[in-house]
Design a protein that fits this description.
Layout (H helix, E strand, L loop, with lengths): L2 H8 L1 H5 L2 E7 L2 E8 L4 E3 L2 E2 L1 H20 L4 E12 L7 E12 L4 E8 L5 E13 L1
Length: 133
């Protein structure tokens, strides 16, 4: 089993939060997340922390796909999220992540989150560190 398969089977955050991963290319992924009532801050508004957790997953897994072949894992050093539009109901959202620059010590990644009508609801960027196993 390769590291990506191992990650999918053992990613408890992803399992608990209904995440589904598609690797598009090395350093480029698509994630989906089924938003349910447990992700809401109020009866009609998704909690920003749910979207931040999703963005962290988008960014870190995009970076992970760029180093998994070298038997490395990753950890988030920092990330920023910009909320552009609220999500007001349960739906399946989609996230795209892409490595912008892969350095020896830091991988810079950008991400986007879209609602089920393909409206951009959040953008993010982050610095991810590769870790030798």
């Amino acid at each position: 089993m390769d590291l990506i398969e191992h990650y999918n089977r053992n990613n408890y955050f992803g399992i608990h939060n209904n995440l589904e991963l598609t690797v598009l290319n090395e350093g480029e992924i698509e994630y989906s997340m089924l938003l349910e009532k447990k992700h809401f801050a109020t009866p009609n508004l998704v909690h920003g922390g749910a979207l931040a957790g999703f963005m962290d997953a988008i960014l870190s897994v995009a970076a992970f796909t760029s180093v998994a072949a070298q038997n490395q894992r990753v950890a988030t050093v920092e990330f920023k999220i910009n909320y552009l539009k609220p999500i007001l109901r349960e739906m399946k959202i989609r996230g795209l992540g892409k490595v912008i620059k892969k350095g020896k010590r830091i991988i810079f990644v950008q991400g986007e989150i879209y609602d089920d009508e393909n409206n951009l609801v959040a953008t993010g960027s982050g610095s991810i560190i590769p870790i030798d196993l």
